[in-house]
Amino acid sequence: MNSETFKGLQNVEELEMDGVYKYTVCKSTNYKDIDNLQKVIRADFPNSFIIAFKNGKKISTTEALKEVKK
User: Fold this and answer.
1) CA distance 23 to 47
2) Which of 31, 32, 34, 39 has an alpha carbon 20 to 30 Å from 69's alpha carbon atom?
């Protein structure tokens, strides 16, 4: 979590999903903010992606966008 790999990113959290560790750097309900941040992060982490959760369970980003639009 304090690795130089994260190059000063704030709010880094570690998740274990299906036996694989993944790292998150931001939580927000504003998709535009997350999308913009991902564009910045991809400069250093080209395989980064957006994940969404509802009630603590991972959901598709499509489903999350539908929830936000309600």
Assistant:
1) 12
2) 39
Separation CA 17–CA 58 (nearest Å): 9
Say if residues 23 and 14 touch (Cβ distance below 8 Å).
yes
**What's the pLDDT tens digit per position in 2-58?**
678 887 788 888 989 889 998 898 888 888 999 999 998 898 889 999 999 999 899
- Residue for token digits 């994260």? 6
Residues 13 and 20 sit within 8 Å (Cβ to Cβ): no
Which token pair is 23?
A: 């790292």
**Does the predicted model carry a pTM greater than 0.70?**
yes
Q: Residue 29 contacts by C-beta under 8 Å, 6 or more apart in sequence?
A: 68
